[in-house]
Amino acid sequence: MSRFALLALLPILAACATPRQNCETAALKDLQTIDALIAETEQNIARGYGIEVETVRSTTFRYCLGRRSGGNTSIGMIFCNEPEFRTIERPVALDLADEEAKLRSLRAKRVSTAKEAARAVAMCRQQHPEG
């Protein structure tokens, strides 16, 4: 199956989630975000440095088929420039004491967020008992 056919099916598959699943996913979103931040902070502390991720755009020149500038249609190969995106990871210095304080704060926030998420999931189950 081609990539385009799979992409065309994606919205249909996303629509297959039940209302209860959609509700529970929304209820757990903040908790999952906090869990991801806790994991990232723990990794930073274990490594001793952070990683900054940056997307860089550059232009590459390739042979293309199609129109030249000015709208003239051509048959054959012409030069064209296309944007290309790369992800670059760079190490960055961190204050480990600040990272440990951030981790303590995130863990404390996680406790209250987990309680809120549990209440929200329970509400989802009451509103949508069909599963």
UniProtKB/TrEMBL annotation:
Keyword vocabulary terms for this entry: Signal
PROSITE patterns per the UniProt record, alphabetical: PROKAR_LIPOPROTEIN
Signal peptide, first to last residue: 1-17
Protein name per the record: Lipoprotein
Biological source species: Actibacterium pelagium
